[in-house]
Amino acid sequence: MALNIISNFAANVAHRNLVISDRQVSSSLAKLSSGSRVGSAKDDAASLAIGSRLNAEVQAQRQAMVNAGQATSMLQIADGAMAKINDILVRMKTLAVQSGSGQLGSTERALIDTEFQALVSEIDRIAKDTEFNGVTLINGSTQTTTSLNGQSASTNVIQAVDGVQAIKFDSSVGDTAFAFKFIAATNILTITSLTSGVAESIDLGSTAIAQNDTQSVKFGTHGVTITLNNAFDKTADVNPTGTTITADTDQSGVIELSSIKLTLADSSATMIALDSTAIVVDVTDSATATFTLGSFTGSADIDATGTTTVLMDDTDTSNDFTISFNVTNVFQDQAETYTLDVTALGALSFGTTNLAGATTDFTFKLGTGNVVDVDDVTFSISSVSVSTLGLTGDKVTTAGFANTASANITAALDTLNTARSGVGAGQNRLEFAADNLASTIENSEAARSALMDLDVAAEMTVFTSKLILVQAGVAMLAQANNLPQNLLQLFQ
């Protein structure tokens, strides 16, 4: 090889090898500092892909374990409430047996019944108040609806566009309907049960609901929660006025329909009748008006002014309901029929049919996929309300009533124990699911570690070797850079 001072081949070779050694040292340092064998796809693309999927799976499984823990906590809350209801039933059984004994008189039994009825109320209170994250656990299912009875889309003002975003009924509501009323001057929102006639009012306040915000109004007595949105106008009244039937101009007589009241809350047939929007009023007889709504009929005298209530009967007395009206002018000779529009009476009425559910279903994500019954597990918690337990109307004011109540309480205890067994089965299942998740996480972590984690001892050996090469490369590059200086001696 010719000797020259322009190209230093030895230095170039030393520099190239030094760059390679430095890159290898840097790569080794990155692995040692991160603890990972695969820092990027260039290290091992296949292992990186598998390891990433395993890591995502492990993190998802950890969250599934959290879900299982929260589900267990929820079931524990439900079981705790059921245990307290069990204690109440035991006390009620004791009171029933006491009241059924002949040494007591009506006064003593009345005193015992005072506690008995208080305990009945407490069962329902516990059932309604036992919640987890705002969700009722042991009072049966709830349903949200904005549909109305007897309302067409054109007259239904209980909709989101009018500010009523949702209406939720507790399971205890059953089949019933409510009238909706708001007075802007007092900011009072009132709902009135068409079953019981009982009204419940809540002050909404005068502050308008902000954009994209909502205001929930819970009517605890009726078991109804209404969610209002910013479209609800707190400056305008909402108040059904009723329907008026006026006779021909050549005849006197005016009927003002004022209300509809359902006789029973659990009558689905009543609700079907109210799906009709027209009550036909036949005033052919000057002294009597006949009212017809679907299969329901009723009649009332109209030969005098004043308020009258007529029973609407479909031959099944359990499905009756009543309508109230006021005759403001006495009818004389009439030979016509008229139609009362239900929507005009209660365009702001809303109702529900068969909402009461014996159970409440909760679905928990215990897997990392989306396969029903594999990754999602559903638990049902049975209702233990007074109606579900079959204790509605029980009392101990007489020996006979006490004996009946005692038998019903025994059956209620069986129902309660069945519900608790379901909760207990769910808790055991969740424990096994959590244990399985823990084992799966452990094995998945081991598989991911084998692919991704660094063997520190082996990598330290590589690092030491490459570090020596770097040090040697630096020394040799220095020597190679000195070689051209030796050629200067030829000029002396």
Task: Sum up the structure in keywords.
four-stranded antiparallel beta sheet; elongated; f41 fragment of flagellin, N-terminal domain; 492 residues; alpha+beta
Gross morphology:
elongated
The tally of beta strands, per DSSP, is 20
Tally of separate domains: 4
CA-based gyration radius: 40 Å
CATH class of the largest domain: Mainly Alpha
- The portion of residues assigned to helices is 40-55%
Beta content comes to 15-25%
Query: Which oligomerization state do the chains in this entry correspond to?
Result: single chain
Structural class: alpha+beta
CATH architecture of the largest domain: Up-down Bundle
Spans of at least 5 consecutive residues whose pLDDT stays below 50 are: 146-157, 264-273
Query: What gap, in angstroms, lies between the N and C termini?
Result: 22 Å
> Can you give the mean pLDDT?
79
How can the largest sheet be summarized? 4 strands, antiparallel
Q: In the CATH hierarchy, what is the superfamily of the largest domain?
A: f41 fragment of flagellin, N-terminal domain
- Lateral strand order in the biggest sheet: 3-4-9-8
As for the CATH topology of the largest domain, it is f41 fragment of flagellin, N-terminal domain
Number of helices: 8
Query: Element order, helices and strands?
Result: HHHEEEEEEEEEEEHEEEEEEHEEEHHH
